[in-house]
Amino acid sequence: MDDDVQRGTPIRILVDGAPIACFEGETIATAMLAADRLAFRQDTRGAGRGMFCNMGSCCECMVTLVGSGRRVRACLADARDGMEVSTRG
Description:
The chain is mainly beta.
């Protein structure tokens, strides 16, 4: 079934310091879910929060881009080679 699937160039991102292999053209959320990283942020009590809508309508998948400190919705942001992401705010 996967014979017709074309993937982008293999790349790597870091999520909370851990390397995650993914492909160009995938979102941060896709890369995280494929690597079994299900918690995208923490609530006020420190509990992990996962995906909800996966289309940018909610903010459950907000992550922080380490280099800029910018918060983005992981379901809408493209993964870039060498990108560092934090789920800890």
